[in-house]
């Protein structure tokens, strides 16, 4: 009997715990249902549009760069459906493409992918889309033309501060290959040498000259890989100019303080000299007055002596 009573007490305790849990779940559901969630009110992100292999944007790229057939056209996307606003063409892997396409209305993706091509003006390049340095290590393997393997000396010339003429390039046959190329972006490739890895650089090619088309920081990075001295960037030059202006300003202020102190000392000396002149003039005037008084006393004494002599003469 005692055992049965213990089991009944245990069952009653379990029933109470289950009722308590059900009450918590019910209250939680009621609370969630009563809440009003705010809608997302941020900026609207541009859609991700994955292009077809026969899209209009790929036509000039295939023509000028002879893109190979294994290029992943299906993974290339733009951020606008209008052809006139497809300024940047980026690539994403197949899994990311599937995630974006299947969750377009569920999640918001701010940015993704690797930039390969960027739209440019006809005056800059005859091809509407130029190669971007950010994705050149990926897109270079699919280029059938406009990709040139150069020697170390030519790469150093291309990374100089100014452009170099095409006829000065020393890689065998490179000057002849670049002759007649219209104004556009081409790619220079420097193979691996020792511990230095291979790398690719976008080159802006004009009728007679070439010049690296990379940022200043990227240019200095490649120069350091080749053992060259880095160039002074525009940002560093502005800092140096600001420091020079600050030093010049401080120098002028110090000179102004010194000149002001010298002028003040000169004025004090002038005031002191004028005071001395005035004091000397006053002392001289007092001396003259004393001399006149002494002269008057002498004259008076002489007249008295003369009168006494006359009186004595008359008495005799």
Q: What do these coordinates show?
A:
It is a single chain. With 316 residues, the protein is an alpha+beta fold. The chain is 50% helix and 13% strand. The N and C termini lie far apart (186 Å). It is built from 8 helices and 10 strands.
Overall pLDDT metric: 78
Q: Quick one: how many beta strands?
A: 10
Main sheet: which strands, in order across?
Answer: 1-2-3-4-5
Q: Report the sheet-strand fraction.
A: 5-15%
Q: Give the topology string: H per helix, E per strand.
A: HEHEEHEEHEHEHEEEHH
Comma- or semicolon-separated keywords:
alpha+beta, 5-stranded antiparallel beta sheet, 5-stranded mixed beta sheet, 10 strands, disordered C terminus
The gist of it:
The protein is α+β, with helices and mostly antiparallel strands and 316 residues long. The chain has helices spanning 2-34, 58-65, 94-102, 136-139, 152-158, 174-178, 216-225, 234-315, and strands at 49-50, 76-78, 88-91, 114-119, 129-131, 147-149, 164-165, 184-190, 199-205, 209-212.
Question: What order do the helices and strands come in, and which of them pair?
Answer:
Blueprint: H1 2-34, E1 49-50, H2 58-65, E2 76-78, E3 88-91, H3 94-102, E4 114-119, E5 129-131, H4 136-139, E6 147-149, H5 152-158, E7 164-165, H6 174-178, E8 184-190, E9 199-205, E10 209-212, H7 216-225, H8 234-315
Parallel strand pairs: 6-8
Antiparallel strand pairs: 1-2, 2-3, 3-4, 4-5, 7-10, 8-9, 9-10
């Amino acid at each position: 009997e005692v055992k049965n009573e213990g089991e009944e007490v245990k069952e009653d305790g379990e029933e109470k715990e289950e009722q308590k849990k059900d009450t918590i779940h019910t209250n939680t559901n009621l609370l969630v249902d009563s809440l009003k969630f705010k809608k997302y009110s941020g900026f609207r992100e541009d859609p991700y549009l994955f292009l077809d292999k026969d899209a209009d944007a790929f036509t000039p790229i295939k023509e000028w760069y002879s893109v190979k057939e294994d290029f992943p056209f299906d993974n290339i996307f733009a951020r606008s459906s209008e052809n006139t606003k497809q300024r940047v063409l980026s690539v994403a892997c197949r899994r990311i493409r599937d995630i974006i396409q299947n969750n377009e209305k569920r999640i918001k993706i701010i940015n993704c992918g690797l930039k390969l091509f960027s739209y440019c003006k006809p005056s800059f390049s005859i091809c509407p889309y130029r190669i971007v340095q950010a994705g050149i290590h990926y897109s270079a393997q699919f280029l059938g033309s406009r990709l040139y393997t150069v020697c170390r000396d030519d790469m150093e010339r291309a990374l100089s501060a100014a452009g170099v003429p095409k006829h000065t390039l020393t890689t065998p046959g490179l000057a002849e290959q670049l002759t007649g190329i219209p104004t556009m972006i081409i790619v220079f490739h420097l193979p691996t040498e020792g511990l230095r890895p291979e790398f690719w650089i976008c080159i802006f090619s004009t009728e007679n000259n070439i010049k690296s088309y990379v940022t200043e920081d990227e240019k200095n990075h490649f120069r350091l890989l080749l053992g060259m001295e880095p160039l002074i960037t525009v940002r560093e030059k502005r800092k140096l100019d600001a420091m020079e202006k600050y030093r010049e300003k401080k120098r002028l202020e110090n000179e102004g303080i010194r000149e002001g102190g010298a002028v003040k000392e000169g004025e004090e000396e002038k005031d002191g000299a004028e005071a001395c002149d005035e004091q000397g003039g006053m002392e001289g005037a007092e001396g003259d007055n004393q001399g006149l008084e002494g002269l008057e006393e002498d004259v008076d004494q002489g007249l008295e002596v003369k009168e006494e002599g006359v009186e004595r003469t008359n008495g005799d």
